[in-house]
Amino acid sequence: MRIVIYDTTLRDGSQGEGVNFSLQDKLLLTRRLDEFGIDYIEGGYPLSNPKDAEYFQAVQELTLRHARVVAFGMTRKKHTAVEDDTGLRALLGAGTAVVTLVGKTWDYHVTHVLGTTLDENLRMIEDSVRYCRRQGREVFYDAEHFFDGWKANPDYALKTVQAAAEGGASTIILCDTNGGTMPEMIAEAVAAVRRALPCAIGIHCHNDCDLAVANSLAAVRAGATQVQGTINGLGERCGNADLISIIANLALKYGYEVLQPSSLQRLTEISRYVYELANMNFRSNQPFVGSSAFAHKGGMHTHAVNRDPATYEHIRPEMVGNERRILVSELSGHSTILTKTMKYRLHHDKALLTQILNQVQDLENAGYEFEAAEASFDLLVKKAAGLYRPWFERLAYRVNIEHDSERAPVTEATVKVRIGDQIAHTVSEGDGPVNALDGALRKALTPAYPRLQEMQLVDYKVRVVNAREGTAARVRVVIESRDATDVWGTVGVSENIIEASWLALVDSIEYKLFKDSETEGAGRDHPAGGSDV
Ligand SMILES: CC(=O)SCCNC(=O)CCNC(=O)[C@H](O)C(C)(C)COP(=O)(O)OP(=O)(O)OC[C@H]1O[C@@H](n2cnc3c(N)ncnc32)[C@H](O)[C@@H]1OP(=O)(O)O
Ligand SMILES: CC(=O)C(=O)O
């Protein structure tokens, strides 16, 4: 059986705190959602603002393969003729073949928010739906607060959706607008409405009890055939139902047909695209698509996963476009170290693996953390295995910050290193100490290693690791770097934040030099004429 997926990231998603899509963002996302295979894309609320109204004009220029774009609006104002209602005029002006109308279900909302009678609300619903139908639109009807209305006054709640059906709505979507309903209640009400109405039923849940996904699935099990939600669960208050989890669960756990055959493998990609577009951080523990969703840290887990991933994975990560990761930490056992050092073929040397494991545990005890610093771990392994030869020798560094009342602080770093038999002594200014050190170190090294120009530092995180010691506490600095092909993390720990940054920075540069020499052939560019790796 096929379940229709209705995405409201561009409308309800943008009602989430901190979410604001530009017109260009909205058009880009429309194209991506279409490519991903979404059936209906709710593009916005044309009455609300000029950007949304403009979107519906601009979107007509896009050639979409599959998705249908939907405009959203509310039922006519009380005691207003449909032809004179500005909301309906804006909705129809959007020019979409499908419109979604939201109307009131809960009697309390009708009397206290709309300030009208129960009968007038029924007329508002039926008139509005019928009018849009007469204008040639397919109409979806969002029954706002359906489940609260059902609890308070089920007869009236049912009359409101019957009015929408009378008006000609093709699908009635039951909304858990306040997100406070439990799954059994959702299932019971959906089944009851399904028995009472001739049209298709949909579900639209909010996540205030962290149940929006479970509630949406319960509704489908009770007969709903359309699911509304947003990518990554963006939306008002605690958000909407997360379509990422809904799509994966419908397809993989229940075997429903959803979207297109290739959509599932693109789930991780679309999730991350929306985070990027919304300028939000990824949620690493997000089910199915988070970077930790298939990350194994506990030594016992890694041991078993090496034998068969199904021992600690409910699905194969590639089914949703994600990947398995093995994390190194103080919780690692020999199997983790073995897996992470596979490329060095150290499996025969149990003593060395134990030495590396002990070193990781000691360093983590001293404040290091290798989970996000796999490049520093790689250098540690090289050193322990005798595979490390320095690309340069660090002789000295100095950082100076000058600040007077006349101008903003100026940071200057000086670095002295030996490369082969040459000494390089360089100076650089920067936005801050790390930026200045990075600049000076590169100035010193780039003439010998030009490919360092390809890399850049993309993230810098600092954390106090033993806060009770006050200013003598150690700090951990994690730096993320990237070049055209890879992203890597390095770590440094010290009582001095600049020294911790320097350690992480040097690791980052050394890792890049080793990485390039390993891909291009051992020894390339190495001042000693070749490394053993
Ligand atoms: C559950 C949902 O998420 S529904 C979507 C909610 N989304 C938004 O509110 C975002 C976009 N909203 C907006 O841009 C504005 O609120 C607008 C343009 C829709 C309306 O703006 P305004 O006319 O200034 O009204 P305002 O926002 O103050 O109040 C809402 C009005 O809608 C009326 N209203 C609310 N729901 C309905 C409905 N289903 N049918 C008819 N009228 C309704 C209210 O009674 C109120 O009208 P009143 O001031 O005449 O009493
Ligand atoms: C329609 C809608 O967004 C809601 O009821 O939550």
Automatic annotation (TrEMBL):
This is Citramalate synthase. GO terms for biological process: isoleucine biosynthetic process; L-leucine biosynthetic process. SUPFAM superfamilies: 2-isopropylmalate synthase LeuA, allosteric (dimerisation) domain, Aldolase. CDD domains: DRE_TIM_LeuA3 (cd07941). Gene3D superfamilies: 1.10.238.260, 3.30.160.270, Aldolase class I. Belongs to the alpha-IPM synthase/homocitrate synthase family. Its EC number is 2.3.3.21. Signal peptide: none annotated. It comes from Thermogemmata fonticola. InterPro entries: 2-isopropylmalate_synth_dimer, AIPM/Hcit_synth_CS, Aldolase_TIM, Citramal_synthase, LeuA/HCS_post-cat, LeuA_allosteric_dom_sf, PYR_CT. Pathway: Amino-acid biosynthesis; L-isoleucine biosynthesis; 2-oxobutanoate from pyruvate: step 1/3. Residues 3-268 form the Pyruvate carboxyltransferase domain. Pfam families: HCS_D2, HMGL-like, LeuA_dimer. GO terms for molecular function: (R)-citramalate synthase activity; 2-isopropylmalate synthase activity. It comes from the Bacteria. It is an enzyme of class 2 (transferase). Keywords: Amino-acid biosynthesis, Branched-chain amino acid biosynthesis, Isoleucine biosynthesis, Transferase. It catalyses: pyruvate + acetyl-CoA + H2O = (3R)-citramalate + CoA + H(+).
